[in-house]
From TrEMBL, chain B:
This is ABC-2 transporter permease. The chain crosses the membrane at residues 44-62, 83-107, 119-139, 151-173, 193-211. Coiled coil: none annotated. It comes from the Bacteria. InterPro entries: ABC2_memb-like (IPR025699). Keywords: Membrane, Transmembrane, Transmembrane helix. It holds the Pfam family ABC2_membrane_5. PANTHER family: MEMBRANE PROTEIN (PTHR41309:SF2), MEMBRANE PROTEIN-RELATED (PTHR41309).
Length: 284, 221
């Protein structure tokens, strides 16, 4: 197990995070949720950057506060609103990385910077949002880490750059089957094609954990009018939302409804639908 | 540790080359046009540049950078260790630069001074720089840059007020005590006083270092 969070509770004045989740070896786990749902707080707690009120966290077998330098050199991290100081240039970062990470691959880092159009001789504070985002990921993937914790790594990237970064993550996983990634995003299409399993966090609570294949192949959206909704078996309905024509119902057994209610429209589930229904609908 | 030192040296090189050049220029210029002692030039450069060390923490903090920095292979204690080592290195470097500028001024003025006396009297400035650093560093770690600035002013104000108060109070101290204190310092001699200052500066650094480690251990990012 790369990361295990059990009953983590972190209380702020107007927000309580309550999180249980795990990231298995060899897996890409997604954490999805709207802004302010608790994604970044979960990352910070897992990395030992904040204290927490209760619960247990083990990151690569150790409590976050017990992580030594050699443990930290085996993880790669990108954080949503933080990176190397803006008063440094990429060419300043290279010797810092070489000194900190025994396995930092300088030539690969430099060639990736060129490939992704990250300038080496410019202050980071002058970078565009996209350039900063790319730099963060390049730093995380070029020192042979066993585990990547990526908080919103694709924010601010255009479609092409996003695809490039996602491919980089796929390559990273292919290089060693024991590697893992925990990735958060509010762009669900990024996670759909990448993750093995997914956690949905809403108002500080994990409200869904599912394998990505199950989510895409078995979840569905039932569109029923008032009469149809009345007759509907609610056994496998996860969430319901009132619409102008009747009800939208999220199910994790779409085949069951397709077979038993041939006159009702059952659409294939997409991650976006699941998120909207689970966070915006009435959960049954 | 090495990585952090490289980072700070690079940060400082990027930001303080102009500052250093300006400091030397101002110091030497004041030395040439006015009659301030060359020793003032050494003090000015050493202390000013040493105070700048705490501001590398601001560069770390810029744009929530602290958060990311702490995910790198460093620990909170190592971060504090590095800041103090960096500070001591910079104060020594600044002192050397100040000494070159001050000595140049001394020679230009054709002043007559023994080398030992000149170097010895200027060693005091490193001690003062270390005391300043001992105050600014934990405050800077504890508070954000805006609050730390006020905290610095308050602490330095309190120290000055205490010094002033002490100088006033000394008038009321019985004469035999002040006399024996005077004798004690006279007996120490110049070298003794420099040594005593060094002991005080190192003690201040040690206390400051322990405080900084505690502050860092409790810090929430």
């Amino acid at each position: 197990m790369m990361l295990e969070i059990n009953g983590l509770v972190k209380k702020y004045k107007d927000f309580i995070l309550n999180c249980t989740m795990k990231v298995e070896r060899g897996c890409i786990t997604g954490l999805v949720g709207e802004n302010g749902a608790g994604k970044s707080t979960t990352f910070k707690a897992a990395l030992g950057l904040i204290s927490y009120d209760s619960g247990d966290i083990t990151l690569m077998g150790k409590e976050p506060s017990e992580l030594k330098e050699e443990d930290k050199s085996r993880i790669g991290v990108t954080l949503a609103e933080s990176g190397f100081s803006g008063y440094l240039k990429v060419k300043d970062i290279i010797p810092v990385m070489s000194a900190m990470y025994p396995e930092f691959d300088r030539s690969r880092f430099e060639s990736l910077c060129r490939k992704f159009g990250v300038p080496q001789d410019k202050y980071i504070k002058e970078f565009s949002t996209g350039m900063k985002a790319k730099l963060k990921v390049l730093v995380a993937v070029t020192h042979s880490a066993d585990f990547l914790l990526l908080d919103e790594p694709t924010t601010g990237l255009d479609v092409m750059a996003r695809e490039g970064i996602l491919n980089l993550l796929r390559e990273y996983m292919e290089e060693d089957e024991n590697r893992s990634i925990l990735i958060s995003s509010h762009i669900s299409t990024d996670l759909e094609g990448l993750c093995d399993d997914l956690y949905l966090i809403h108002e500080g609570q994990i409200i869904l954990h599912e394998e990505m294949d199950t989510l895409l192949n078995e979840y569905g959206l039932i569109k029923a009018d008032d009469v149809q909704y009345g007759k509907l078996d609610k056994e496998h309905i996860l969430s319901v939302r009132r619409t102008t024509y009747g009800y939208d119902c999220l199910t994790d057994q779409r085949q069951y409804y397709r077979e038993n209610y041939p006159d009702i429209v059952v659409e294939n589930g997409s991650l976006d639908e699941v998120i909207t229904m689970m966070t915006g609908g009435k959960r049954l | 540790m090495k990585g952090l030192l490289i980072k700070d040296i690079r940060l400082m090189r990027g930001q303080s080359t102009i500052l250093l050049a300006l400091l030397i220029l101002v110091a030497v210029f004041t030395g040439v046009v006015s009659d301030v002692s060359p020793s003032f030039v050494v003090a000015y450069i050493t202390i000013y540049l040493s105070i700048f060390v705490a501001s590398t923490i601001s560069y770390d903090e810029y744009d929530h950078g602290y958060l990311f920095l702490m995910t790198l292979p460093i620990t909170r204690n190592k971060y504090v260790n590095e800041k103090y080592i960096f500070g001591i290195l910079i104060s020594i470097f600044a002192w050397c630069v100040g000494m070159v500028a001050g000595t140049a001024l001394l020679i230009a003025r054709d002043a007559d001074m023994a080398a030992g006396e000149w170097i010895g009297s200027n060693l005091m400035h490193i001690c003062i720089a270390w005391v300043f650093m001992s105050i600014t560093m934990p405050l800077r770690l504890k508070f954000d840059s805006e609050k730390a600035r006020y905290a610095n002013i308050i602490v330095i104000g309190v120290i000055l007020a205490a010094a002033f108060g002490a100088s006033k109070l000394i008038e009321y101290v019985p004469e035999h005590i002040t006399e024996s204190a005077g004798k004690f310092f006279a007996a120490l001699g110049d070298n003794g006083i420099v040594a005593l200052s060094a002991v005080i500066a190192v003690a201040a650094l040690l206390i400051s270092y322990i405080c900084s480690r505690r502050i860092m251990a409790k810090k929430e990012f």
